[in-house]
């Protein structure tokens, strides 16, 4: 169980997050949506330990998280706006590097399987500096799955992916969720939100302004209309 309790973040004189609380159980999939600048990515960085909250507490499996820890990075697979990949290295070398960092067992076999899973097997020995955006994103996805995380925090993971890769990513998310991994997804792509997530939070100006379940039969248009109404305060 991952719990965020009354998190507040102030940078300079700006209040970025206000009294933010959230509980995420393993096997749950929750979307975080909201306008640009609402504080979604900041919330993720706080939760994965890349940034310290001004006040509030984060607990993982009942233990309070004090500061940036490798354990936390291992337990939470975080895909951010940056890829955290090395341009001079090949996909295989990048993954082996992170595998060693996280002390992953049977690294080579695991890396080979993941590269197949994300469709980069044929490119595994080419330095990634020449890769397209979508190829980079596929590799970034493989990286976050490497350490068998208990939670996946995906910040706009569908960006730059082609249709095939979008389906592949959604399949990966659903599989991992069935295996008991908790998923948090930030996305502006509501089609993916409705198809992948069971619950949604709307963040606006650093506050959760609405939270509800998503009906698996719910159409895209009703969801969009609901969101528009929530954000405009109608
Ligand atoms: N390091 C920082 N220093 C100052 N302000 C920051 C910093 N990081 C984020 N902010 C501010 O915090 C607010 C929230 O930013 P954040 O990146 O969390 O938004 P977001 O909801 O992820 O937006 P988007 O949908 O555009 O990705 C913005 O006003 C941003 O300018
Ligand atoms: Mg963001």
TrEMBL record:
Keyword Transport: yes
Keyword Nucleotide-binding in record: yes
UniProt-listed Pfam families: ABC_tran (PF00005)
Every ABC transporter domain range: 2-230
InterPro entries membership: AAA+_ATPase (IPR003593), ABC_transporter-like_ATP-bd (IPR003439), ABC_transporter_ATP-binding (IPR050763), ABC_transptr_haem_export_CcmA (IPR005895), P-loop_NTPase (IPR027417)
SUPFAM superfamilies: P-loop containing nucleoside triphosphate hydrolases (SSF52540)
Alphabetical UniProt keywords: ATP-binding, Cytochrome c-type biogenesis, Nucleotide-binding, Transport
Similarity section: Belongs to the ABC transporter superfamily.
Protein name per UniProt: Heme exporter protein A
Organism name: Cytobacillus eiseniae
